[in-house]
Amino acid sequence: MALTVNWSEEARFQFENIIDFLNYRWTEKETKDFILKTEAVVKVIRAHPYIYPASNYNQIRKAVITKQTSLFYLIRTKEIYLVSFWDNRQNPTRNPF
Fold it and tell me: In the prediction, which pLDDT does 33 show?
């Protein structure tokens, strides 16, 4: 049974910022590709929530969307909660997860 997916305000804000950045710096194709990759990862998470590795922080898991971007999520009883997007090029010690 696939779980429902809910986004934190932070995750939604970060996702929209990534889309805005891609629209500004790249083409519509790259923006669409990122959206499709994100949707594909979320679909996999819904069907198989434990497929991605756990992070070092309190049961939050990390799914790599692209080599530049990861998605952190939490598995709850009946839902997947998307917590945050992360730019993998940042200093990893600054990542709270």
Answer: 97
